[in-house]
Amino acid sequence: MKVAVFGLGYVGTVTAACLASQGHDVWGVDVDVAKVDEVRAGRSPVAEPGLEALIAQAVAGGSLHATTSCADALHMAEVSLVCVGTPSAAGGAAELSYIRRSVADIVSALRLVTPPASGHHSVVIRSTVPPGTVEETIVPALSGGLAGAPVTAGAAMCPEFLREGSGVADFFASPLVVVGTADPRVAGTVTSLFGFLEQPVRVVGTRTAESLKYACNAFHATKVSFANEMSRLLRVAGVDSREVMSLFCEDQVLNISPAYLRPGFAFGGSCLPKDLRSLLHLARTNSVDLPMLAGTLATNELTISDIVDRVVACDGRTVALLGLSFKANTDDLRESPNAELAERLLGKGFDVRIYDSVVNPARLIGANRRHIEAKLPHLGRLLTHEPGEALRGADAAIVSSIDPAIRAALLGNPPRHLFDLNGRLGQQIESLPGYEGIGW
Ligand SMILES: NC(=O)c1ccc[n+]([C@@H]2O[C@H](COP(=O)([O-])OP(=O)(O)OC[C@H]3O[C@@H](n4cnc5c(N)ncnc54)[C@H](O)[C@@H]3O)[C@@H](O)[C@H]2O)c1
Predict the structure, then answer these.
(1) Which of 73, 85, 285, 312 has an alpha carbon within 20 to 30 A of 255's alpha carbon?
(2) Best mutation site among 18, 30, 178 for ligand 1, i.e. most ligand atoms within 8 A of its Cβ?
(3) How far is the CA of 17 from the centre of ligand 1 (A)?
(4) Does residue 325 register a pLDDT over 90?
């Protein structure tokens, strides 16, 4: 396949050389003549293990070319991979001017050159761009700029996951190959372009693909900062944080795993809030700043107030809270965010009816009882025996439980507004008219 790669930086050069090594006819384009000259001479413009050898071999074998001319690169090319920079602009926004410029260059050249035999060209963004860029910037530029041209074009986002320093190895062993597009022809082209990789190409919406790269980088940054905050705290406690974190990583059930990474409602219960507060207290008394860990409590609070705001914005004042404890199959109400939600809605004058199949106020004892008596002194009067009873006449339901009886009651008597806090109620409930999933 003839491929044009725009931008011969870290991503573009690795991409161009690796694709050329697989027999594709690759043309690298850059506005920087020095980089183009380096590739032409069979050398790498960036330092990456293994890259120079791949470039030298591909240039000598005629599968890799470099040019400053978009027209040469796009002559009969089926796909453009845009790998130009998106540095931080003032205020932190991603600077998209290089992307716009290169897409404008692609459009101008496509109007002039001989199109590929398919008559269709795919413009694939590999640079990291904010969600909405492909739909709002690239697609309109292509459809407006190519009206009446001898070629049609579609766009996609295909995030790059390589890391500098191991770019070539990462390219061939990418943890994910994701293409975000609404255009099946572009999906087909990208799937065939990367067909040599072991990972299957996953086709998703463009905004999903754009967001995925940001989610990955935000998570990686969070992991580094988490380990470093633990280290700062443990140092003052005389503990070797490397040993703690090494054991921590051995737990691949709860720690290094998908656990706790599903968007939904706030955390709570008898341990997480209490132990975070204790860690933060230890830090404060030792003059150690842990802004990220402190921020988890702040963001948890926002998760609760966001639901309160969304319920307040609904019409109606009667709410069924289906699920009271902080998670399924426990009657532990200590620091349950659902109990907090009930308290805030009652405080705002809502008529709140509660159903939880596990919670029986008559059987609550000890700290659990004291906690709920302080938060919801009239719990006995608010609790219903059946979910249907809570839903009768309710304007809105807030559901955190996956109890099948709750599901059946929701289907039998759907409320006008349904807030699903955990996203586990299933397709049938999700298609009810008033359904709002939390976290999506
Ligand atoms: N560096 C990484 O490890 C990495 C990994 C994944 C994703 N990304 C993302 O990929 C993108 C590129 O990153 P990079 O580190 O390769 O950038 P880079 O700065 O190394 O390279 C960008 C290249 O684009 C060229 N360029 C600018 N405008 C152009 C135009 N109109 N036509 C042709 N070439 C043009 C520049 O001259 C430069 O050589 C960024 O969005 C980055 O966030 C980077």
Answers:
(1) 285
(2) 30
(3) 15
(4) no
According to DSSP H, which parts of 167-290 are helical?
A: 167-172, 184-193, 206-236, 241-250, 272-285
Whether 263 and 423 have beta carbons less than 8 Å apart is answered as: yes
Catalytic residues: 271
Query: How would DSSP label each residue in 306-362?
Result: HHHHHHHTSS-SEEEEE--SSSTT----TT-HHHHHHHHHHHTT-EEEEE-SS--GG
Provide the CA 177 distance to its chain's centre, in angstroms. Answer: 15
Q: What sign for the dihedral angle of Cα 133, 139, 142, 145?
A: negative
- Coil, helix or strand for 245? helix
Residue 50, SS3?
coil
Whose CA is closest to 338, among 438, 414, 259, 434?
Answer: 438
DSSP 355-392: E-SS--GGG--HHHHHHHHHH-TTHHHHB-SSHHHHHT
Q: Name the β-bridge partners of 321.
A: 354, 398
Kind and range of the H or E element at 177? Answer: strand 177-180
At position 226, the amino acid (one-letter code) is F
Taking the C-alpha atoms of residue 365 and residue 122, their distance in angstroms, rounded to an integer, is 65
> In 3-state terms, what secondary structure has residue 246?
helix
CA of 324 relative to ligand 1 center, distance in Å = 50
Those residues whose C-beta lies under 8 Å from the C-beta of residue 6, and which sit 6 or more positions away, are 12, 29, 30, 80, 81, 82, 83, 84, 102, 105, 106
pTM of the predicted model over 0.85: yes
Using most ligand atoms within 8 A of CB, pick from 6, 8, 83 the residue to mutate for ligand 1: 83
For 16, the token pair is 């161009």
94-146, pLDDT tens digit by residue?
999 999 999 999 999 999 999 999 999 999 999 999 999 999 999 999 999 99
**Residue among 120, 35, 98, 110 nearest 71 (CA):** 110
Name the nearest CA neighbour of 150 among 117, 192, 197.
Answer: 117
DSSP code for 116: P
Please provide the DSSP assignment of 389-439 as one string.
HHHTT-SEEEE----HHHHHHHHHS--SEEEESSS-S-HHHHTSTTEEETT
Report pLDDT digits (tens) over 152-169: 999 999 999 999 999 999
27 CB-near residues (< 8 Å, 6+ apart) = 2, 3, 4, 5, 65, 66, 67, 72, 73, 77
Taking Cα atoms as reference points, which of 50, 18, 19, 46 lies closest to residue 30? Answer: 46
- Is the Cβ atom of 32 under 6 angstroms away from ligand 1? yes
